[in-house]
Amino acid sequence: MKTILTLLFACIFVIMGVDTVLPAVYMDEMGRRVDIPSLPQRIVSLAPSITETLYSLNLGERIVGVTEFSNYPDEAKRKPNVGSYINLNIEKIISLKPDLIIAIADGNKKESVDALERLGYSVYAINPRCVKDVFQTIDNIGKITGCIGRASRLIKELKSRVNYIESRIKGIEMPRVFFQIGINPVVTVGKDTFHNDLIKMAGGLNISGNEKAKYPRYSMEEVLFNTPDIIIISSMDRGGGFDRKKREWMKWKSIPAVKNGRIYVIDSDLVDHPSPRIIDGLEELSRLIHPELFK
Question: Among 106, 101, 166, 157, which residue's Cα sits nearest to residue 130?
Fold first, then answer.
């Protein structure tokens, strides 16, 4: 009788498109052992990138809480808010009765994650450090939520898009890129950032790519000295200051990017979040850096 019931439930889960049904102990991306129930139904996402990944795996109905700026897709805006990913509202998270919480190492405070664990919640931490780590994170989230097949198909599609870009830029000249994320003061991106990784993958040379600081300040003299061919301004400043800054650059005619009219604004959501949409950001950067290759 037990065998028949087991087979019956297995068939039901296959019809539902679920790949795994058993509770298990998983090693998260920080090397922590996490007990996760079978098919978690009440998931709290502690970063916008996690929210986007869950929706990409068609798990929107299981999300019961998200952090501030979880704005994609539009449906995410209507989910209960549990604070910013730096300053979490622990009481709100508890009130949502989650059976799985997914955290991000580069953003969530360790003490907040530890507090949730002490209260008995399953907290799985992700820690992507470069663009291609995002594929592993998608795979891991697929495993812990029972969506292995969906995750595999998504990863295959994303990798195909990356491979196409890599094949097009192979062996070409790399223009010098200044990527601006801060308006006043001027802040750019250093070596260990997703932005630097994206610029290289898109066939560009980040003029601050050897900086050890993730987000170093740059003086105008440093920008002038490094003579960027392209200036890309991230729209991270939600007040719209990037449009004003684009106009301000125009007075520096000695900079090749200014002289040749190659100053662009890019949607920060496409290049800041280690989610499937980061490949959209890669494609956009590729078009900006090499319009001759990507129409």
Answer: 106
Query: In this structure, is residue 162 part of a structural domain?
Result: no
Say if residue 16 is in the same domain as residue 117.
yes
What confidence tens digit (pLDDT) does each residue in 132-183 have? 999 999 999 999 999 999 999 999 999 999 999 999 999 999 999 999 998 8
- Long-range own/partner contacts, residues 57-64 (CB < 8 A, 24 or more apart): 57/138, 57/141, 57/142, 57/145, 57/147, 57/150, 57/151, 57/154, 58/147, 58/150, 59/145, 59/147, 62/145, 64/96, 64/97, 64/98
Number of domains in the chain: 2
Are 272 and 194 in contact by the 8 Å Cβ rule? The answer is yes
Partners of 25 in the β-ladder: 35
Residues paired with 176 in a beta bridge:
205
Closest CA to 281 of 202, 206, 215, 175: 202
For residue 85, is it within any domain? yes
Chosen domain end from 127, 155, 183: 155
Model-level pTM?
0.89
Q: Of 117, 82, 80, 76, nearest to 100 (Cα)? A: 117
* Same domain, residue pair 112 and 52: yes
Query: Are both 281 and 177 inside the same structural domain?
Result: yes
Domain that holds residue 123: 2-155
CB < 8 Å & 24+ apart, contacts of 60-64: 62/145, 64/96, 64/97, 64/98
